[in-house]
Write a structure and sequence with these properties.
The structure is a homodimer of 233-residue chains. The first copy, chain A, is an alpha/beta fold. Chain A is built from 6 helices and 8 strands; from the N terminus they run E-H-E-E-H-E-H-E-H-E-H-H-E-E. Chain A has a single domain, classed as Rossmann fold (3-Layer(aba) Sandwich), CATH 3.40.50. Chain A has an 8-stranded mixed sheet with strand order 3-2-1-4-5-6-7-8, with helices on both faces. In chain A, helix 3 packs parallel to helix 4. The interface between A and B is large, with 51 and 51 residues.
Chain lengths: 233, 233
């Protein structure tokens, strides 16, 4: 069984690669660096524009797979940046957010259209706050809203994905990543979603267990160290 | 009274420039070309990246205004392109949609933060179909969904816009533009929204007449040559 993790070197990406490896999957990581725990790695060249990044990443993935199909394509790439209209860097940050979340999601969708098996799973990285306005993090909100809408498009008739496949958006509030611990050391960690919860959910969905309907946005909430999922659309 | 029309050379843009000129406004057009009907023109350089396009357009607008403030910043830039995940050009089209609708909207937001008067109006170009999935026009849907979310952010507390200003998204279904007539010559034009209806609505909103709450998405529907507005959020 093969899965592909886009963003396999990030905080969540590493946890997801590790989880699927432990569960016996062959894992391909796509990222700007290599994840030594993955069975194979495809490197993204940040100097490429969107069209060439898609072309090069898709070709490299096809070269790795040599005709075998994927159970799941899981994109967990993306970062965070703030900024409102008064912030001189808000457009620069919006550009970065777009490249991290939307370029990766579009390329993951193309990979899924070519390499996912029938009935396979595609997961894209949304964010719960972007289901409404986010005045203090405008670029981040726009990028995540675009990903949310892409999930709905991919879940619709005529998206070009393999028959019976399922596209879901995961919308965390705050993930318990090393980076978030570093930058918010005094937060209440009991309300942060553990990476193991996310990875375990992704594995279940990959196995077609407890899968919401394709096109669903699934927000992840944690209270008193207990995590529950909620459909947003 | 001054207004700025972003995309003043497009089908809708020309109609809006003309309407505000007839109503006695001083109109600045921002576009890749010049609109001779406008009082002043600011040209967008397509070779610029997003950050430089923002920097150069904002500086040129400041040079034109020399301290005077705008009643309204109206962005009607943007085009249309189709494509699902099987379309080899879908990412190329998504990139174009992003640049046309989202770059322009972000730059219009920065202009509004610097040049709009208190209680002024900012209008951004959404699209009714993008309020749900758009499998056959994936890049278009993502870009418009991002604009919709930006409208909500700009309507929220802390967006950095002047006090009392109002940000609205206009979400047409199909506009009765020369381009749409050319490419869909056999459509039922009685269901297309006339440009004069849109321009008239924009002028009313500019005068603070019949303005929906800031952050609203306003879809425009036409049946039997009669147009009505509906709040989408």
């Amino acid at each position: 069984m093969r899965v592909l993790v886009y963003g396999g070197c990030g905080g969540l990406g590493r946890a997801v690669v590790q989880h699927f490896k432990s569960a016996g999957y062959n894992v391909t990581s796509v990222d700007i660096g290599e994840n030594p725990e993955a069975d194979s790695n495809v490197k993204v060249n940040l100097a490429d524009d969107w069209v060439n990044q898609e072309k090069n990443v898709v070709q490299s993935v096809l070269d790795v797979l040599v005709g075998s199909k994927l159970e799941a394509v899981i994109n967990v790439a993306g970062g965070w940046a703030g900024g409102n209209t008064q912030d001189p860097d808000w457009v620069k940050n919006a550009d970065l957010m777009w490249k991290q979340s939307v370029w990766s999601s579009a390329i993951a969708a193309t990979i899924a259209s070519k390499c996912l098996k029938e009935g396979g799973l595609l997961v894209l990285p949304g964010a719960a706050p972007a289901t409404s306005g986010t005045p203090g993090m405008m670029g981040y909100g726009m990028a995540k809203a675009a990903v949310h809408q892409l999930v709905k498009s991919l879940g619709g008739q005529g998206s070009g994905l393999p028959d019976g496949s399922c596209t879901l958006g995961i919308l965390p509030v705050t993930l318990d990543t090393p980076m978030n611990r570093k930058f918010m050391p005094n937060a209440d960690f009991s309300t942060w979603t553990p990476l193991s919860e996310v990875a375990g959910t992704l594995e279940k969905w990959s196995k077609n267990l407890e899968r919401p309907a394709t096109g669903s946005l699934v927000s992840m909430h944690t209270q008193s160290n207990s995590t529950y999922l909620r459909l947003e659309n």
